[in-house]
Amino acid sequence: MQIALLGLGLMGRPMARVLLARGFGVSGWNRSILSPELVEGIPLLGTLEEAAKAEVLLLMLADSVAVNAVLEQLEPHLRPGQVVLDMGSSDPAYSKLHAERLKSRGVGWVDAPVSGGPEGARSATLAIMAGGDPTNYARVLPILEALGRPTYVGEAGAGHTVKVINQLMVGLYIEAVAEALLLAERQGLEPRKVQEALQGGFADSKVLQIHGTRMIERRFVPGARVKTQLKDLRLAQKLAQQAGLNLPHLESTLGFYAELEALGDGDLDHSALFKRLESR
């Protein structure tokens, strides 16, 4: 199966390498030029027209704006029988529109965003939530299984909806851990001992162990960026408004991330929410 992986960022690069190691024919393309050492070992495509020859077009792009822009250039070259597999975090409403438009041309669509960060991408342990026509899902399932643990959650747009829900939970967990570790420090406790003491209990989580360590060390190199978390929380806010829901913790967490971006910290790891709480 020939795959064109479009988007060789923090997630796309390790995903490409995993797929290559599993025997898939993978070529990569990125919207901006990357230094050779970053893409070492990944065969590169020069144009989207070249990419359009692949059986599966795997998109690992930042947001709906990027997906829309790439699809606009890609679609004139697509042919019936191909599948577009969007594994980034995008607006579910756009996913539904893309699926319908591509279906009219005989091109399949699956939205299968992931959770687990670059660590999960490198270790092929990503949580994958997939939406789309079941036939198209079955076609890309070997790719998804090579990258992690896929779950089919419904028709087109459902995968991206579940990812928004995932990001809502991640944002709230990060705020909870940041508040807890800040309180521990101000009480004179050693935060690493707090991590150790809570390990295995109900308060333990990957956020506490991974992001908590970044907070303790004040090491906010991404990982997932503040601006990405903010984008996803705004999508959650949009879905909540459509559902007539008032989610107060979503609003407060979104506000902290908006403050970080306004302060010029949008490219820090999203665990940098700790930094904002610490300075208030």
Task: List key phrases describing it.
280 residues, eight-stranded mixed beta sheet, 12 helices, alpha/beta
Per-chain topology:
Elements: E1 2-6, H1 12-21, E2 25-29, H2 48-51, E3 56-59, H3 64-74, E4 83-86, H4 92-103, E5 108-111, E6 114-115, H5 117-123, E7 126-132, H6 134-147, E8 148-154, H7 158-186, H8 191-198, H9 206-217, H10 226-242, H11 248-262, H12 273-279
Parallel strand pairs: 1-2, 1-3, 3-4, 4-5, 7-8
Antiparallel strand pairs: 5-7, 6-7
Helix pairs in contact: 1-5, 7-9, 7-10, 7-11, 7-12, 10-11
Question: Can you walk through the features of this model?
Answer:
The protein is of the alpha/beta class. Helices cover 52% and strands 14% of the residues. It has helices at 12-21, 48-51, 64-74, 92-103, 117-123, 134-147, 158-186, 191-198, 206-217, 226-242, 248-262, 273-279; strands at residues 2-6, 25-29, 56-59, 83-86, 108-111, 114-115, 126-132, 148-154. α7 (158-186) packs parallel to α12. It is globular, with a radius of gyration of 19 Å. The N and C termini lie far apart (52 Å).
